[in-house]
Design a protein that fits this description.
The protein has 302 residues and is an all-alpha fold. The protein has 2 domains: 61 residues, no CATH class; 215 residues, MetI-like (MetI-like fold, Orthogonal Bundle), CATH 1.10.3720.10. Helix 6 packs across helix 8 and helix 8 packs antiparallel against helix 11.
């Protein structure tokens, strides 16, 4: 975890130097003179040696100082904190929905291997994994917001306005993000459970006359938990990418929308801060998934 974060930190720092556009020229504007651009470079310390800039940047990073936005002139940490709530709730809703839907689908599809239900699940997984998130988002808006008028088409209601209003405003975005996640987890769950169903201990449990749900719950699912937990952690990357698109489609003022706006404006301090945050979340979640293996499989120890 530490080497990965260190590598990403170096890459994020170099991002502002490998870009073909001078950040100082962006801040100065289209009609700025060379002297004005040079003054801004001096103010931002972009004219200092690279190693000195990196040392200064790391020392600020250790104090949770992510710099100042080029356009809004506000601290990046404050901007991220203001946008954190909707993205966090959206991610928790999408993950919970995906796991609750995908794991039972995958297990039942594996038990009904080769049947009609299994083929429907496979088709659903392929469709869900192949459909762009923005297309799913527009479809959900057209059907459930504009057509049936069950949910708002855009916007976000904060938790301070009420838990019900908050969940209602994020339900369609969460469904759009969860569809890709459901397809991924379902396919892996089905494949792993089919392998477990062919084991001798499962056939022995079936020969004893145990109910199918008992065999699946007590013998199949626990032995398939490690690969399923792994793909849940891997899917976090797909979900983080989906959040950027989904929040733009549904006009949710979260970290995804902040990322899209910063890329369009070439606001490098915000891009750097968000890259560090997303990498930390992804690596941290995968670390927790790795540590959870000891609870699923007693043969694993660290």
């Amino acid at each position: 975890m530490v080497p990965i974060l260190a590598f990403v930190a170096v890459f994020v720092f170099l991002l502002i130097h490998i870009t073909p556009v001078d950040p100082a020229a962006i801040i100065a504007g289209d009609y700025a003179t060379l002297d004005q651009i040079a003054a801004i470079r001096t103010q931002l310390k972009l004219d200092r040696p690279l190693l000195e800039q990196f040392t200064t940047w790391v020392s600020r990073l250790a104090r949770a100082d992510l710099g100042v936005s080029i356009f809004s002139q506000q601290p990046v940490a404050r901007l991220i904190g203001q946008r954190l709530e909707p993205t966090l709730i959206l991610a928790l809703m999408a993950t919970s929905m995906a796991v609750i839907i995908a794991v039972p689908l995958g297990v039942i599809a594996a038990y009904c291997g080769g049947g009609v239900f299994d083929r429907l699940v496979i088709g659903f997984s392929v469709l869900g994994f192949s459909t762009p998130i923005f297309l799913v988002g527009y479809f959900l808006v057209y059907v459930f917001a504009l057509g049936l008028d069950w949910f708002p088409a855009q916007g976000y209601s904060p938790l301070s306005a009420g838990l019900g209003f908050c969940f209602r405003s994020l339900l369609l975005p969460a469904l759009a993000v969860a569809l890709l996640y459901v397809a991924l987890i379902t396919r892996v769950t089905r494949a792993v459970c089919i392998e477990v169903l062919n084991q001798d201990y499962v056939r022995t449990a079936q020969a004893k006359g145990l109910e199918p749900w008992v065999v699946l719950w007590r013998h199949v699912l626990p032995n398939a938990a490690v690969p399923i937990a792994t793909v849940v952690g891997i899917g976090i990357a797909a979900m983080l990418g989906g959040v950027v698109v989904t929040e733009t489609v549904f006009n949710v003022p979260g970290l995804g929308r902040l990322t899209a706006d910063a890329i369009v404006r070439r606001d490098y301090p915000i891009i750097q801060g968000l890259m560090l945050l997303f990498t930390g979340i992804y690596v941290g979640v995968n670390l927790l998934i790795d540590l959870s293996y000891v609870f699923f499989d007693p043969r694993i120890c660290y």
